[in-house]
Design a protein that fits this description.
The protein is 52% helix and 20% strand. By secondary structure, it is α+β, with helices and mostly antiparallel strands.
């Protein structure tokens, strides 16, 4: 019974969410590739043995594969699912056939086809957030302090109840959530908080403290806190509604916040301000999917939007075998006037594949360790 609950509560939501994101990502590659005149031989959601599929009138094999941890579009002339060109095969093609391969297409068409996958993920995230904001609105509160926690960064800087936060490092803030988002990714980093008190602005330097908190599901998360709290009276809690156009703009803003927050988190890892054990792999994503499923459909869809941005960013990493690696190769080709040799590309792809697999193993090990701990 426990196994059945685990499968239905965690695995099923995880597979559904990931399959949607993979499908959208690969569809971006597929649509722009087809528009560019590049032939597609396979479109797979998942890796490994094919479970079910069909071949359309254009010769593309659409399939659902056994391992639901990704997917791929295989173009005509590719050696494998990583879009490594089959140099020997392409060399013996006619000009007409070579023009239908990814390797034989014009440089800008190749770049557009590769970039379309991550861009599709970002567009999906914007669309999801836009729909959520249109339907549910957004709870907001004014950035007015109701309580200052003892021994906190805000207390040490002299923040007082009733202060209104107006800017962080010169950036205007309009809601209490703006403050939380900015501070949370800046643990142990000096910031300047501009507060309004009795009609006058004051700049208060402070350093958010790295703090481990436990969320409603028992997950431990590290973030930066300055130790201020608002309440309904001070913060004027209210539901903000949006027109469809405003919701799209808010979706763009929310997607941008996730992107900047991700880069900030990576920077914190490099500088040691945050621990690498917060990196999540397939196990943690499955766990998060199951947890969000208990909160309802809207929570699962919101998680899908966040993961869609993450997948887009991950694929833009300049690692051979990922989309970002392909784009680096194309940038080098644009500068050199000719592509890298087939041997150099193959070596780079093998190294990139090893790097990606190592990262997945590391993230999965972290997931399992955190679950056991």
């Amino acid at each position: 019974m426990a196994i059945f609950s685990f499968i239905t509560g965690y695995i099923v939501p995880f597979v559904l969410v990931l399959s949607l994101l993979v499908f959208v990502h690969e569809m971006g590659h597929y649509l722009v590739g087809r528009w560019s005149g590049i032939r597609v031989t396979a479109f797979s959601v998942g890796f490994g043995p094919e479970l079910v599929g069909f071949t359309d009138s254009h010769g593309t094999r659409w399939k659902l594969s056994a391992i639901p941890l990704g997917g791929y579009v295989k173009f005509f002339g590719d050696e494998d699912a990583s879009s490594l060109p089959d140099a020997s095969s392409v060399a013996h093609m006619s000009d007409a056939d070579r023009a239908q391969t990814l390797a034989g297409a014009k440089l800008w068409k190749r770049a557009a086809t590769v970039a379309a996958g991550p861009i599709a993920n970002f567009i999906l995230a914007i669309a999801i957030f836009a729909v959520l904001f249109s339907v549910y609105g957004k709870m907001v509160a004014d950035p007015v302090v109701a309580e200052v926690r003892p021994d906190s960064a805000a207390a040490e800087a002299g923040v007082q109840p009733g202060d209104r936060l107006k800017a962080l490092d010169g950036y205007d803030v309009n809601t209490f959530d703006d403050v939380r988002r900015y501070v949370s990714v800046r643990p142990e980093t000096s910031i300047v908080v501009t507060v309004e008190r009795n009609g006058q602005d004051m700049d208060l330097p402070m350093v958010p403290k790295r703090t481990e908190i436990t969320d409603q599901f028992g997950n431990k998360v590290e973030l930066g806190l300055i130790g201020i709290v608002t309440n309904e009276e001070r913060g004027n809690f209210r539901l903000q509604t949006f027109t469809p156009l405003e919701a799209v703009g808010e979706g763009v803003k929310e997607t941008g916040n996730i992107i900047t927050g991700t880069f900030r988190y990576i920077g914190n890892l490099v500088t040691g301000r945050m621990k690498a054990d917060q990196l999540g792999g397939p196990v943690r994503v499955a766990q998060a999917s199951g947890q969000m499923a208990t909160l309802g459909f809207a929570a699962v869809i919101q998680l899908a939007a966040v993961l869609s941005v993450s997948i887009g960013l991950l694929n833009l990493m300049p690692v051979p075998v990922l989309d970002g690696g392909h784009l680096v190769f194309y940038a080098i080709e644009a500068v050199r006037g000719k592509p890298l040799g087939a041997g150099a590309q193959e070596i780079a792809f093998r190294i990139g594949l090893a790097m990606v697999l190592s990262l997945m193993v590391f993230a999965t090990f972290n997931d399992i360790t955190n679950l056991i701990g």
